[in-house]
Write a structure and sequence with these properties.
The chain is mainly alpha-helical. It has a domain of 47 residues. It is 41% helix and 0% strand. The protein contains three helices and no strands. The protein is elongated, with a radius of gyration of 19 Å. The chain starts with 7 loop residues before the first helix and ends in a 20-residue tail after the last helix. The mean pLDDT is 79.
Length: 73
């Protein structure tokens, strides 16, 4: 699966279809090209999700041996 960089027009179309949420173009631009460092850019988030999707959870051992603070001894 190849991820394409998000486009402002894509988010503007989503905004138009979700009239209950009036996002400003500046807020949508921050998703396309983050400048303030407050949020993860959409492209970065999608790449991280793709990495997680490729992990075979069936091959991952359970975390039963990991101590939990305040948990049962």
């Amino acid at each position: 699966m190849t991820l394409e960089p998000p486009k402002l027009t894509t988010f503007q179309e989503l905004r138009a279809s979700s009239a209950a949420h009036a996002f400003a173009d500046a807020e949508l631009r921050e998703l396309v090209e983050p400048k303030y460092g407050i949020i993860t850019g959409y492209a970065t988030l999608m790449a991280q999700l793709e990495t997680l999707r490729r992990i075979d959870l069936g091959a991952t051992p359970p975390a039963q041996g990991v101590p939990v603070q305040g948990g049962d001894p």
